[in-house]
Amino acid sequence: CSSGRQSEPVDIALLFVGKE
After folding, report:
1. How many Å apart are CA 18 and CA 4, to the nearest integer?
2. Tell me, what's the pLDDT at 7?
3. Cβ(11)–Cβ(17) below 8 Å
4. Distance of alpha carbon 19 from alpha carbon 5, whole angstroms
5. What is the dihedral of CA 15, 20, 18, 5, to 10 degrees?
6. Dihedral (CA of 14, 18, 19, 20) sign
7. Using CA atoms, how far apart are residues 16 and 11, in angstroms rounded to an integer?
8. Which residue, among 1, 4, 11, 3, has the nearest Cα to 19 in the 3D structure?
9. Alpha-helix residue ranges (DSSP H) falling in the chain
10. How far is CA 20 from the centre of its chain?
């Protein structure tokens, strides 16, 4: 969730958890 990096693995995981 860093506003400076490109989509990190953690960010993607959080997105999946938030969707379901």
Report:
1. 21
2. 64
3. no
4. 22
5. -10
6. positive
7. 9
8. 11
9. 9-19
10. 14
**Cβ pair 10, 18 in contact under 8 A:** no
Structure confidence at residue 8 (pLDDT): 74
Residue 5 CB coordination number (10 Å): 9
pLDDT of 1-16, one tens digit each?
555 566 677 888 888 8
Both tokens assigned to 10:
């953690």
pTM, to two decimals: 0.21
CA separation for the pair 4, 19 (Å, rounded): 23
As given in the structure block, the two tokens for residue 11 are 């960010």
